[in-house]
Amino acid sequence: MRDGNEPAFDYRVRRSDRARRVRVRVDAANGVEVVLPRRAAEREAAAAIRELRPWIERRMAELQRTRALVAARGASVPYLGELLALVAEPDRTRVHRRGGTLLVPGGEDADHRPALERWYRRQARTEIAPRLDAATAAAGTAYSGLTIRGQRTRWASCSATGAMSFNWRLLLAPAPVLDYVVWHEVCHLEVMDHSPRFWALLAGRCPEYRVHAAWLRRHGATLVL
Question: Same domain for 157 and 218?
């Protein structure tokens, strides 16, 4: 039985040599997690949970709404603004698109997500590379390489050497949102920080960037398989 001060949810504690302070994370994969510096006292985890309880409860409610939205798709997945129906074929080994349908390996009750993620990763390079090429050509800049990743907390990044990295889950968003993220990173080839000069540059090249950035903040948690 819980007392009035104890949170009405479970959490796990993870120690990290890299952590410099106590951090609390809430996500679909790990639930509520407290990251402690290696030498921090265990009681600091409980103190952080008590202090952040209202925020944690809001995040948990958001995750429940996200799960409901993802479940509402049924046997389909989003792809740059389209919904593609999933059709299972037991003898298939790779995902294949046929019009508005994705043929996936395994039976109807199988977990198609690993195969789907591999397909999305392949498609991400196909979709993002030409967008990057067109944007850098228009801007008169160049990038040094493109990597497709599945970061937990980042949609994309641009290094000081011009190496670009994009999250494959952006293909679950509408196409204009992906285009905005591409322009965001291309602008970093000229301005590496988020100074007023950067935002002015982005506004000139992607005038609706605020709309797309707001969509990503609001719906980013739903971009999962």
Answer: yes
Considering just the CA atoms, what is the radius of gyration of the chain in Å?
Answer: 21
What is the C-alpha separation between 94 and 73, in angstroms, rounded?
A: 22
The 10s digit of each residue's pLDDT in 40-77 is 898 999 899 999 999 898 888 888 887 787 777 878 99
The answer to whether residue 5 is domain-embedded is no
pTM listed for this prediction:
0.77
User: 71 burial class (0-12, 13-18, 19+ CB within 10 angstroms)?
Assistant: exposed
CB-count exposure of residue 18 (10 Å: 0-12, 13-18, 19+): exposed
Looking up tokens 């948690």 gives: 221
The CATH number linked to 147 is 3.30.2010.10
* CB 167 within 8 Å of CB 149: yes
Give the sheet arrangement for strand 12-16, strand by strand.
12-16, 31-37, 23-27
Domain that holds residue 203: 116-222
